[in-house]
Design a protein that fits this description.
Structural class of chain A: alpha+beta
CATH class of the largest domain in chain B: Alpha Beta
Helix content of chain A: 40-55%
CATH superfamily of the largest domain in chain B: Periplasmic binding protein-like II
CATH architecture of one domain in chain A: 2-Layer Sandwich
CATH architecture of the largest domain in chain B: 3-Layer(aba) Sandwich
Number of strands of chain A: 12
Helix content of chain B: 25-40%
Largest interface: A-B, 40 and 44 residues
Oligomer: heterodimer
Number of domains of chain B: 2
Largest sheet of chain B: 5 strands, mixed
Order of helices and strands of chain A: HEEHHEEHEEHEHHHHHHEHHEEEHEH
Shape of chain B: elongated
Strand order of the largest sheet of chain B: 4-1-5-12-6
Radius of gyration of chain A: 23 Å
Distance between the termini of chain A: 14 Å
Strand content of chain B: 25-35%
Distance between the termini of chain B: 23 Å
CATH class of one domain in chain A: Alpha Beta
Largest sheet of chain A: 9 strands, mixed
CATH superfamily of one domain in chain A: Bira Bifunctional Protein, Domain 2
Chain lengths: 359, 229
């Protein structure tokens, strides 16, 4: 284990490297208002972040990451375009596994840039890859945007598309919905009875959810019962996409094959291709760079395009040394009507030191 | 040295626990006045009775400050992450049965399953501008249960008592609580979701896996477990 001083020195060194590439250093507060994070992530964030409070400010969270405060700060008064770097502790509650660390240092690099998103993706990835140097790591990339494009391209109702989109980051729920919408899971007897109009209740309605909301959902369910199942062919296409785990050139040719049957994903696939070229132009070895269509689906739900991670090649016990991705939608959510394409990544100096110490 | 046995300090849970041990030839009793939380053990040597709130017994077992303790499955699962590593079940005592369940208003005819709850929560958030609130004191268990089920767009609100009333008071839209007969739920116009059973709980005698023991205490524990077996 590295000492705190060693970790901080490493963090300062990494941050200086990002500064040398023109990033402005920012230092968001450790205490973050809980309501923004709760609004973004829901209850799941409570399982991950430490919550504290005082009478004046109400609930606060010890920052679980830097991305949200950096985006908020940028949307308030940032230059356009802008590049930021930071280094400091983040805090993660460990409800399941006390052996995992609950406080560690992150160093990050974030790019807010409207021009040429592929170049920005490649810039973040390549700078982090360079900073990792000769460490024995393996990179994995992916793109949540392709899966989103497939869902958007399905020939089904908006209600079904929205429900699938809402659960992109919950793979099991996503699968259950897909089974249901493709007719693989028959409706339950209670659902049949509800649709037939034979479910009634004499009980008085208590609570804030009103009768018109109940009626609206029953109407929606009736309309949905009349919606044709998503064809098995489309489900197969989704499976074929999620199965992709190959070096980037192979993955890309499989994505091209899929886009023959699903032309709606052509723009998303073109973005993957443009990124491959931009990465190659940055000197990244794209011929062997792994692309996994499923990558990033179980992380915090703000990545909506490029995603990547670097893990130690022979140390499966270590957490990733670096992770990142594109989060355009997050800038929209936090921008109060404004938005800007954004991509970034974070590194773990403590894990780097651990790996350096055991060659 | 003595083997420490933690037992709930009041109420039916205490009395039933005393009865359970009594039926096995071990007399537990409170000493002194009703207000004094000290106890005596007869029928076996080397065991000390520690009277505690049922809610504190999981923590004391996990910290190794007591060797044995009686409390509900629900409290152990809620309060101890990775509870299997710090405690183990000695015996289920056959009383204090209660289920941790998720309930919604009976009049929600469109909501029967967790899938329905998730869909209703999404629509509720759009309509009301805040997440659908679930009142509970079992935050960790409920959050894990709903995460595994893939339910989103809800918020937990803390309720340490009279949880069934929160819906009528409009401080929550649904509840997650312990119920034994379901009568309170019905009286408050609530129904359990068909897949809303989170945990079946009952009073259970637990053994700490981490409490240090010397040779005497270990022998005492073996004797005690044999008597209880």
């Amino acid at each position: 284990m590295s000492t705190r001083a060693e970790t901080n020195a490493k963090a300062a060194f990494l941050r200086a490297g990002f500064e040398a590439h023109g990033a402005q250093t920012v230092e968001p507060p450790i205490l973050q208002p809980a309501d923004t994070l709760l609004d973004l992530y829901g209850e799941d964030i409570r399982a991950r972040a430490y919550v504290t409070s005082d009478a004046a400010r109400g609930e606060q969270m010890l920052r679980p990451d830097f991305t949200v405060p950096v985006v908020q700060m940028h949307m308030e008064n940032g230059a356009d375009p802008a590049r930021y770097t930071y280094a400091g502790e983040v805090f993660r509650r460990q409800e399941r596994d006390p052996s995992r660390t609950s406080e560690y240092v992150q160093v990050g690099y974030e790019v807010f840039e409207r021009e040429d998103p592929a170049a920005s993706d490649a810039e973040v990835f390549a700078l982090i890859a360079d900073a990792l140097g000769d460490l024995p790591v393996r990179a994995v990339t992916g793109d949540i945007g392709v899966l989103m494009a497939v869902v958007n391209g399905l020939k089904t109702s908006d209600l079904r598309k929205n429900a699938l989109m809402r659960h992109i980051w919950r793979p099991r729920r996503f699968r259950a919905l897909l089974d249901r919408y493709s007719g693989q899971m028959p409706a339950s007897p209670t659902r049949e009875a509800l649709l037939a109009g034979s479910v009634t209740s004499d009980a008085p309605l208590v609570g804030a959810r009103r009768q018109h909301e109940i009626d609206a959902r029953i109407q929606a369910l009736k309309a949905d019962a009349g919606t044709a199942p998503i064809p098995a062919r489309d489900v197969d296409l989704i499976d074929a996409l999620l199965d992709i785990s190959a070096p980037l050139p192979d993955a890309l040719s499989r994505l091209h094959d899929l886009s023959v049957d699903l032309p709606e994903i052509i723009p998303a696939v073109a973005r993957v291709a443009a990124r491959k070229d931009a990465l190659a132009a940055r000197g990244v070895e794209v011929e062997t760079l792994l692309f996994e269509a499923n990558h990033g689906r179980t992380s915090m739900e703000y990545y909506d395009g490029f995603v990547f991670g670097f893990r130690a090649r022979d140390r499966a016990d270590l957490p990733p040394l670096a992770t990142g991705g594109r989060y355009d939608a997050l800038t929209r959510r936090l921008g109060r009507g404004r938005e800007i394409p954004a991509v970034g990544g974070v590194m773990r100096p403590d894990v780097m030191l651990e790996l350096e110490g055991k060659p | 040295m003595t083997l420490k046995l933690g037992v709930p300090s009041k109420g039916r849970l205490m009395e039933k626990t005393f009865d359970w041990f009594g039926a096995r030839g071990i007399q537990l009793a409170r000493s002194g006045s009703d207000r004094e939380y000290a106890g005596v053990v007869e029928g076996i040597e080397g065991v000390a009775l520690v009277l505690l709130s049922a809610g504190e017994i999981p923590r004391e077992l996990a910290a190794g400050r007591i060797h044995l303790g009686v409390t509900g499955t629900d409290l152990v699962h809620e309060k101890l992450p990775l509870w299997e590593q710090s405690v183990e079940v000695v015996a289920e005592l056959g009383f204090g049965q209660a289920d941790l369940i998720l309930a919604v208003p009976q009049a929600w005819t469109d909501v029967d399953t967790l899938h329905d709850l998730d869909a209703a929560a999404a629509a509720f958030r759009l309509e009301h501008g805040h997440r659908l609130r679930i009142a509970t004191k079992y935050h960790r268990l409920v959050r894990e249960f709903l995460r595994d089920a893939g339910v989103a767009d809800y918020a937990l609100v803390d309720s340490q008592g009279a949880t069934e009333g929160t819906v009528a008071n409009e401080t929550a839209e649904a509840i997650a609580d312990i119920t034994s007969t379901g009568e309170t739920l019905t009286a408050n116009h609530l129904k359990i979701l068909s897949d809303g059973l989170m945990l079946r709980s009952q009073a259970t005698l637990w053994k700490s896996r981490v409490a240090p023991m010397d040779a005497d205490e270990r022998k005492c524990l073996d004797d005690l477990l044999e008597r209880l077996g």
